[in-house]
Amino acid sequence: MAIITISRQIASYGDETALELAKSLGYEFIDKKDLEKDLIDKGISKESLAHYDERKPGFWASLSRNRDSYFDYLREVVYGYALKGNSIFIGRGGFALLRGIPGCYAVRLVASDDIRIARLMKEFDWPEKRARALMAESDTNREGFHRCFFDMKPEDPTHYRLVINTDFATAPLAASIITHACKEAISPAEELEGLKRISELLLGQRIVNLIAFKEELPIYFLDAEVSDTQIVLHGVADSVACIDKALKIAEDLAQGRSVSTQISIVNEYKPYP
């Protein structure tokens, strides 16, 4: 039927709603543990996960090359799961990574501060002050994460097809609303179109990650634009030899597409501290 992304505030029934959806629709629920395992398998350290996973990075962390490897491998992992179709993502910028792709249905779950604090107090058996502090920390980290990686405010309702206030909805009710809305909004043709686009994005990201992190070619702001017939590399490099190596890597993965480059040459370009 579709790919559903759920963005949520802490204590707004995000995980509970995702689990209800997965159970009722028979979809795969991709949670934090799934993504972390795949990122670690691809070489992302636990330290990097601690710096970046739905957190507001510090100043130097936001400029580090580790930021790029985390973000680029996160994209590859998300695209890989999304290509299977019939999947549910929660958090980790899923709505932003899949934004604009046909067949992807973005949902935001919110609740009032008083309700969220009450839920946290009950869940952890905490006093109000401690629950309020956790809520504030979570909100700050999630906003910082989305600003750092996507230059977006997650609370902006225009990013989503549907926003649900769980002050007035249980997790089963929220899941039922999402199911009905998604079935009405996503056609089979749109879903197929979306899967095609995701396959192109996945190929492009695999090319980028192989060039940048496996072969460690010094090409900055690297992007691989993939369509039915061609692949175009973009970025900044300091030599023709480096660009030629990147072209060869892309050609090996091109699956019959032509490969060209719009990579600029800037001598001694060094963007990282």
UniProtKB/TrEMBL annotation:
Coiled-coil residue windows: none
InterPro entries: BON_dom, P-loop_NTPase
Superkingdom, taxonomy of origin: Bacteria
Protein name as catalogued: BON domain-containing protein
Pfam families: Cytidylate_kin2 (PF13189)
Species annotation: Treponema medium ATCC 700293
Domain BON residues, every copy: 199-267
